[in-house]
């Protein structure tokens, strides 16, 4: 398939190259349309958010009030910190103007005059790349006052995070921009009614926004025919772990997982068997390697298989992988990243980690397996934001799909394979 | 406390944010960039500069992993040990660094030259294992490359 988000064009990050390849034409076209026509086109395209929840992007835009006596804001979520996810980084580096063009179009569609691109603090180098691209776009009149003589104005600012996974959660991200701790907010009220500083706000993922210029240039109908019918479009899949060619691959949605691993990512080293995969970042449910036949990278297929697309950060684990060590490491992550507001998550994530470490060391008790399940079930659904669920799902799915691994380890502590150490 | 350059940068930023409090993170970044860490005095300064209570600034500094309230070693080496790096041998990199530097994860050498930290996923999953030194990422690492990097840093 032709690549749209990360095409193989050298120096595409330079504004002249971007323009020479049709860049900012979608913006010109949008400015000639009515804002609601732009939103309608995005809605009809079927684009669903690429940040993890797969929520329809155009529909989200319609939640914004048309008339508002308060300013309206857009936050572009580039906090990318879900383990196994490294796709937005490629956009920042190789196609930042696509992101900028999408941001201006989205702002025009929703009547937004200030947009913040929130980028994780660790991406200092990539922040400078975006800032360079922004400065060029300002200089060429694509951002700022009276864009291309249309009368529409918007400013775009990069806001640098400071190392908190939770700030990728939309309400936490807003609190972070407001200069506070990244604590998630109770909803309702939803951001479109009461977002940044109490004003109408929309939060979209970097990759979602980068799809917008394609939709406007080529039309909603064209876009809706790419990939899986109910989850269309190009998607950036980041493949990591036990594959010969790890990396980010652009493909239409709906490509079989096994094809992604074997064709795109060059297969598993040593032709080993796939023991397990995590399809979309560490918070998505783990799947068995022997149950991947017929499963593809799109919302419906992965839901049927008992997981989700998440951020399409596909982690592959070969037959020698110590899954107890893997799930213990994942649990440590959520324990570290829990913001501490809700008791089930603050306490429960730590308990999960401690028990899993105990099992990993061969000191686990047989009843620990049910105890883990019980704790995970009591976190899930009982917290303000989805971090609690994200901590529970990997543990629940690991026990459900690999209970034998746990049973072996608690019963016979000395038999654990140790190819992966923590 | 802030250089002339950053004071000007801050003034430019003000027009993009409706409250002074929103500048807490940008100002803390500037302070850390200039002073290496954010001292209690610096937090009080930020509070006064932006009209927010000291406690709020302290709360922000301690919430975010990347803000440091204590000085670090001259070279801060961060190793990712999350799943994708773990599957591609981050444990070996950690072991090697600990041996070479004579400090454990989370420690700073007595001569204040090195700090070694374990970090969560840095977005280098496709180029694992990795370490970061400041803003620079070193990816697809082998222990031999770690040795070369340490030798380079040693000379700085």
Brief sketch in words of this structure:
Chain A is an alpha/beta fold. Chain A has helices spanning 15-20, 25-31, 35-45, 57-62, 88-94, 96-110, 124-139, 170-177, 206-218, 220-224, 257-264, 299-304, 323-337, 343-360, 368-379, 387-401, 403-411, and strands at 73-78, 114-119, 155-160, 201-205, 227-228, 231-232, 234-241, 247-252, 274-278, 287-288, 313-318. Chain B is an alpha+beta fold and 156 residues long.
Task: Give a description of the structure.
The complex is a heterodimer of chains A (about 425) and B (about 160). By secondary structure, chain A is α/β, with parallel strands linked by helices. Helix content of chain A is about 40%, strand content about 15%. Chain A contains 17 helices and 11 strands. In chain A, the strands form 3 sheets. A 5-stranded mixed sheet of chain A has the order 8-7-11-9-10, with helices on both faces. Chain A has a 4-stranded parallel sheet with strand order 3-2-1-4, with helices on both faces. Chain A has a two-stranded antiparallel ribbon with strand order 5-6. In chain A, a hairpin with a 2-residue loop joins strand 5 (about 225-230) and strand 6. In chain A, helix 2 (about 25-30) packs parallel to helix 6 (about 95-110) and helix 6 packs across helix 9. The longest helix of chain A is centred in the C-terminal third of the chain and has 18 residues, at about 345-360. Chain A is globular. Mean pLDDT of chain A is about 95; it is low at about 415-420. Chain B is α+β, with helices and mostly antiparallel strands and about 160 residues long. Chain B is built from 7 helices and 5 strands; from the N terminus they run H-H-H-H-E-H-H-E-E-E-E-H. Chain B has helices at about 5-15, 25-35, 40-50, 55-65, 85, 90-100, 145-155; strands at about 75-80, 105-110, 115-120, 130-135, 135-140. In chain B, strands 2-3-1-4-5 form a 5-stranded mixed sheet, with helices on one face. In chain B, a hairpin with a 5-residue loop joins strand 2 and strand 3 (about 115-120). The longest helix of chain B has 13 residues, at about 145-155. Chain B is elongated and about 50 Å long. The mean pLDDT of chain B is about 95. Chains A and B meet through strand 3, strand 7, strand 11 and helix 13 of A and helix 2, helix 4 and helix 5 of B.
